[in-house]
């Protein structure tokens, strides 16, 4: 059957195994010596038949008898044919580079490991990790491994090229001819196999069946294989049933991608929601839409919503004006060019706009002006106040025929009468003095207000308001008569009774109001040194007057830090008055005032300015008083519901407070007479932080005319219709909508708005409020 | 500053804040996106007055001023609105015009975060970047293993056991006598949680649960999710997915009536019951779910009125010692499922952990011990608890394991470790280190939030507002406007990615040790560290 070899090399000598090194040397020498047909009686030597390049192109046949060792034909050359007559150990054909290796028995583990060319024909089964790491170099034909039987586990791991054919012939387990988990990491080549498989690395390989070309190749090559292993008779058995053959090929990269598992979305629909029910995990607990939304959302999904809070809050000026003059509205009218309307507006709120706003009021509006918080000068309302001397009288409502008696023609009385007049009621002032105006015309120093302003304004009132000059203090009997005769009575008789401290020598002191009244008439002499007990604003007025009348030193003492403020305090200080506190008076002597400390202040005149009290001697007992003042409710109504009381008879206060009380009382009286019940809750003042003052010139030292005031007014809480929000809105969500001839509003398109808050942050007037959207749940 | 320009003690400038908003006037488009998404209202539109002095060369004319106004992004300085550095502004800015940057000096804000006398609370993490686990190396590399394992290409399963494993002779005896054999689950060594429904948003929770179900059913990896305290939606309790869930009971007992009502209708037993006694992020303190996260849905699942604060008591109310609590509760929980479900306590890592462990070894019903180290994250905790309380996880796991070795029970009662696993992104390495120190598996929360939902927290005090319901990623909020930013499907997809990668990485670590089926639990000879003290303390090799 075999041709006779030209040399036989024995693997043992004298009964001992020849070392692999020596056997290799002998084989190489034999080839070098021209032997081309070598027979080796092996005794477990390794690497037999590899590396036989010394024959050049001439073929070399190596027949291995005996027991071959590991790595038969490793690094085999294309010229070499190795014919192992029997089984082989591990790694037959390892790194084979072209040899044909025929094994006429079984092969152990690692058959064909890392081979790149050549053919290995195994006439039996192979062990684990056959055909692993095989390569295919395009310069050469791909390697082939033929296995007549089956493979062991981990077949074709990391296979990168070549062809393996597993015939499954008489395999002990034909249901799986490829062992456990073949093809892990397989990236190239193909595996023909006949019989079943027990799974393979689906990630790396895919199963197919031979096409016609592949079948032709397989059957033609099968013939060769069978002839080489001497079993040509098996050809029909192995090639008759084409359907028994399958192929595993490496997946291409694009085939690997997307292979295998279903997507999460499909899993959600087909598995998750199916098991849990519609809506998934909490579909039974809530109807809340939980579908994904954009990061920057609009409409209901905005986190924040802007609200146009126009005139929802009072500007601080108006909120702090006891009279309640809509200061801001007046500046707005001026901005619109309606100066006269702005001026006229004042008379609807106060009968004495020029005298009080322009001269006598500490102007609480200006003290609270938002501009002051940023160090900007307050809008100067005194300019507007003084301009109000030219205000036109408002149109009075048609006469109702109702008559109201007003006791006292001071600021409070004038205010209530003026307001009642505008509402169509007849208010008759009963004044004890010759002239109207109360303290304004009686005790406030002339330096504080020009006579012509006062007389102009009082004249305007005298023209309209009927009044009686009683010329003596009112008696209780007279009061009762008035009470009978009129529908209602308003007591506005002021606080004209000086308070005196009963210290030794107090009879030497002069009451401040008396002093001021007399000083207006220049009917008083004060001497060199004046001491004023009580350093409030009245005391300050007295101090200024004392200096005007020739005093060299004026000292104001107080038991606490003086409560005086504003023009009065500044004027007194400017006049050189000295303030001392805390000081307690022990006694008043002929030339001086003694303090409890033992200090003695020289005093030619001692003025007592510790406050005044109402003179309520005319008041019937059924009207409740407390600590010398009439008790009223929030509408200035006394315990007798037909009697109201306002001004200093209720509580000592500013002129503007008296005027404001008159307005409130007049409204209450009007409601009462007309049978209405109205509440007039005042709006809260706007938070000044909402107003942006960066839009105004920071260097303006003071206002000089009403025009610049109007421009500088921040219009706190009241839209000035500048249109900045509409322009600024990045979403173009804000638009101005006209409502009638003058009215308008700015509205937000929720479907465009993202709730960025730019409108709220930029609004000069603090109208826009950014608020959290309604909770969604 | 106050509008009137007055200083108050807590008047801060942006320079005093930990995060400063860097804004480019040149690039800004004034689109409003940044202010619309800022969770803290830390930024707004600023109105700025601008003055330019007009001076002619040679002073030819009288100098003048030109005033103007411009608008730009302004940062709030009120402590209540201080920037948390989440960077959502940067994310939505189309022009790259805005970003929070870390202050270059220690912030002053922390001295003012106690306005009204309330100490700071926050969510998130410890904000300490160091990690002992990160320093541990796997130094024992086998040149060849049998079988040859390619972690990336070979498919092999890593599994661990949760449950009380009887010693063989004992198991034989019990089985011969027909006695009770404790339930044991063969699960994946990575457990997600514990994170409650309530702390997490519905979208986040559903996404994670869906991902867990997918990983189990499609990828056949038996990963488990621990619910945290707060109950479990009724549908999940009645679904087959329950077997992937470890239900937690804690001192607030929220949601347990729903679980009890579901008992007769359960298709599957839960994986296990975790009894929470402590949490690494706030050892000795209970849950702190604040009212803004307790909406109708959360309230109904927890069985409480909506809009109330839900602080859990620090300890279980009617139990007077940990021994008593563990014994009673483990037995009761076991009874609820007919002793078919493993029940184990979870405690915060503590120097007293060994006492608990020793007690458990004598309790035949105790299935495991879970310990949560100081680096654990949380939805809400007092700052002082987060930053200053707790025990590192590595040494306590080591102590516990060696203690079990000493008494010969290291294969009987598994230890699960959590708290900072993967805090710097090294999830598999940290997990492997803990396993080789003696843990049977790890519990992971923060890493999952970061990787699956893009949580913005970092170890640099970023974001950390999980507690106030304003989570800008929708992870820890109950506000639909926020949680709908998160798509549960995407969360599930990311969880799949995370687990697959974790699996490969863990295999890359254990395969060179020749481990393909059993985890190298306690295989500390594979560990080394370049810190002598740490090496001595942990009983591992000192390598430099």
Question: Largest sheet of chain B at a glance?
Answer: 8 strands, parallel, barrel
Q: Kindly state the percentage of residues in helix of chain B.
A: 25-40%
Q: State the distance separating the first and last CA atoms of chain B.
A: 54 Å
- Given helix and strand content, the structural type of chain B is alpha/beta
Unreliable residue stretches of chain A: none
> What gyration radius of chain A follows from the Cα positions, in whole Å?
58 Å
Summarize the largest interface: chains and residue counts: A-B, 64 and 70 residues
Poorly predicted ranges of chain B: none
Counted by DSSP, the helix tally of chain A is 23
Mean pLDDT figure of chain A: 91
Total helices of chain B: the number is 17
Secondary-structure map:
The complex is a heterodimer of chains A (777) and B (544).
Chain A: E1 7-10, E2 12-13, E3 16-17, H1 20-32, E4 37-43, E5 60-67, E6 80-84, E7 97-103, E8 117-122, E9 144-147, E10 160-166, E11 188-194, E12 205-208, H2 212-228, H3 235-239, E13 245-250, H4 253-256, H5 264-276, E14 304-308, H6 316-320, H7 327-335, H8 339-345, H9 353-360, H10 364-367, H11 370-373, H12 381-387, E15 403-407, H13 411-422, E16 426-431, H14 439-442, H15 451-464, E17 467-469, H16 476-485, E18 488-491, E19 497-498, E20 510-511, H17 512-520, E21 529-533, H18 537-548, E22 553-557, H19 566-574, E23 578-580, E24 585-588, E25 592-595, E26 600-602, E27 605-608, E28 612-613, E29 625-626, E30 629-630, E31 643-645, H20 655-674, H21 706-712, H22 724-728, E32 734-739, E33 743-748, H23 758-762, E34 768-772
Helix pairs in contact in A: 7-8, 7-21, 9-12, 13-20, 17-18, 18-19
Chain B: E1 19-23, H1 33-37, E2 43-54, E3 64-75, H2 88-92, E4 98-102, E5 121-124, H3 132-135, E6 137-138, E7 160-163, H4 168-177, E8 184-187, E9 190-192, H5 202-217, E10 224-226, H6 234-237, E11 245-249, H7 256-262, E12 272-276, E13 288-289, H8 296-302, E14 310-311, H9 322-336, E15 343-348, H10 353-361, E16 369-372, E17 378-382, H11 383-388, H12 393-406, E18 415-418, H13 427-437, E19 441-444, H14 446-453, H15 480-483, H16 488-510, E20 527-529, H17 532-538, E21 541-542
